[in-house]
């Protein structure tokens, strides 16, 4: 009977570790939510206490207890890493959609006014920030022959610009969430595509 109760408690502790990882990664860390972080820590502590209780009930040898605890900790870490990267990928896709929305509005403005707007402030109802909360950057370049080029960009997850001017970005594909995403006249100059 003690073994059955011990296994049930072990299952319970595994669920507590999973809840801690899910709450911490999906809610607490990306949004810097202190209440969710507190819940994540609480679930993790309940999981640890349950694991110790299960080991006591079943009278596990220390090596078995250490193995099970190690597996639970590694599994929780793996869930945290996976969910964290998935969350950043979602934010990157939302940022790309925001950049495209500004670009469509700039193209629409050009259709009506025969020129691109000098500032994104002239565009109505367009996103002003990326999914990480950083301000999108809009620049208009006018060349001597009268042609115009607009740029819309996000500094990426880290919020730091890699170049001082949007015209300085070389074309290329990025692999980091911290990399800047730059769009110009209908195509991505630098981005995850």
In short:
The chain is of the alpha+beta class and 193 residues long. The chain contains 3 helices and 5 strands; from the N terminus they run H-H-H-E-E-E-E-E.
What does this 3D model show about the protein?
It is a single chain. The chain is of the alpha+beta class and 193 residues long. A five-stranded mixed sheet has the order 1-2-4-5-3, with helices on one face.
Structural domains: how many: 2
**Residue-averaged pLDDT:** 78
Structural class of the helix and strand makeup? alpha+beta
Question: If you compute it from the alpha carbons, what radius of gyration comes out, rounded to the nearest whole angstrom?
Answer: 25 Å
**Could you tell me the strand content as a percent range?**
5-15%
Poorly predicted regions are none
Sheet with the most strands? 5 strands, mixed
Mass-distribution shape: rod-shaped
Element string (H = helix, E = strand) = HHHEEEEE
Bin the helical content.
55-70%
Number of helices: 3
Keywords:
193 residues; alpha+beta; 5-stranded mixed β-sheet; 3 helices; 55% helix
Lay out the secondary structure.
Layout: H1 2-31, H2 34-58, H3 62-113, E1 137-142, E2 148-154, E3 172-173, E4 181-184, E5 187-191
Parallel strand pairs: 3-5
Antiparallel strand pairs: 1-2, 2-4, 4-5
């Amino acid at each position: 009977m003690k073994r059955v109760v011990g296994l049930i408690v072990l299952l319970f502790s595994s669920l507590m570790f999973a809840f801690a990882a899910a709450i911490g990664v999906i809610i607490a860390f990306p949004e810097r939510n202190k209440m969710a972080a507190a819940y994540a820590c609480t679930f993790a502590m309940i999981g640890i206490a349950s694991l110790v209780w299960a080991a006591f009930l079943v009278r596990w040898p220390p090596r078995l207890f250490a193995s099970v605890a190690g597996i639970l900790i590694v599994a929780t870490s793996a869930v945290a890493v996976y969910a964290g990267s998935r969350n950043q990928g979602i934010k990157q896709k939302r940022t790309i959609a925001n950049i495209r929305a500004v670009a469509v509005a700039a193209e629409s403005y050009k259709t009506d006014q025969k020129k691109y707007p000098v500032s994104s402030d002239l565009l109505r109802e367009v996103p002003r920030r990326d999914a990480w909360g950083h301000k999108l950057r809009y620049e208009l370049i006018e060349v001597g022959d009268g042609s115009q080029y607009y740029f819309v960009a996000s500094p990426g997850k880290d919020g730091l610009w890699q170049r001082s001017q949007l015209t300085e970005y070389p074309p290329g594909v990025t692999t980091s969430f911290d990399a800047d995403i730059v769009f110009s006249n209908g195509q991505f100059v630098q981005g995850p595509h």
